[in-house]
């Protein structure tokens, strides 16, 4: 099984930036970041496959960047120009191809909190 540990959550002011990191133990052909705000359903934010192809939710396109550091085996999420609606619990997940935000993800990290004010 793939083990995932997130880090980097915290607080930011609107318009600021945060960087999340997910340490991956094992291998997965598809990695994703998801978020869940209080009272809302979990939504896919970004995904990257083993070839480096990425996909993003419309709400974060142009502001967030997902990347995979093969040397460190981490999957990072750079969040720029954040707004209040970006707040929530962010979790990374490992899944199977096709690597889509609505695809199959079966290993999850514990989550990290992001607050934007």
3D structure, described in words:
The protein is mostly beta strands and 117 residues long. The protein has strands at residues 3-7, 10-12, 18-25, 30-36, 43-49, 54-56, 64-69, 74-79, 88-95, 105-108, 112-116. The strands form two sheets. Strands 2, 4, 5, 6, 9, 10 and 11 form a seven-stranded mixed sheet that branches. It has a four-stranded antiparallel sheet with strand order 1-3-8-7, with no helix packed on it. The radius of gyration is 13 Å and the shape is globular. The mean pLDDT is 96.
Give the SSE map:
Layout: E1 3-7, E2 10-12, E3 18-25, E4 30-36, E5 43-49, E6 54-56, E7 64-69, E8 74-79, E9 88-95, E10 105-108, E11 112-116
Parallel strand pairs: 2-11
Antiparallel strand pairs: 1-3, 3-8, 4-5, 4-9, 5-6, 7-8, 9-10, 9-11
């Amino acid at each position: 099984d793939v083990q995932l540990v997130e880090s980097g959550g915290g607080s930011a002011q609107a318009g600021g930036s945060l960087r999340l990191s997910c340490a991956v133990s094992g291998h997965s052909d598809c990695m994703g970041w998801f978020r869940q705000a209080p009272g809302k359903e979990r939504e896919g934010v970004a995904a990257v496959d083993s070839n480096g192809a990425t996909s993003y939710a419309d709400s974060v396109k142009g502001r967030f960047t997902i990347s995979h550091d093969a040397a460190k085996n981490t999957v990072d999420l750079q969040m720029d120009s954040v707004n209040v609606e970006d707040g929530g619990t962010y979790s990374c997940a490992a899944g199977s191809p096709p690597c889509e935000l609505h695809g199959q993800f079966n290993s999850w990290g514990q989550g990290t909190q992001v607050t934007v004010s």
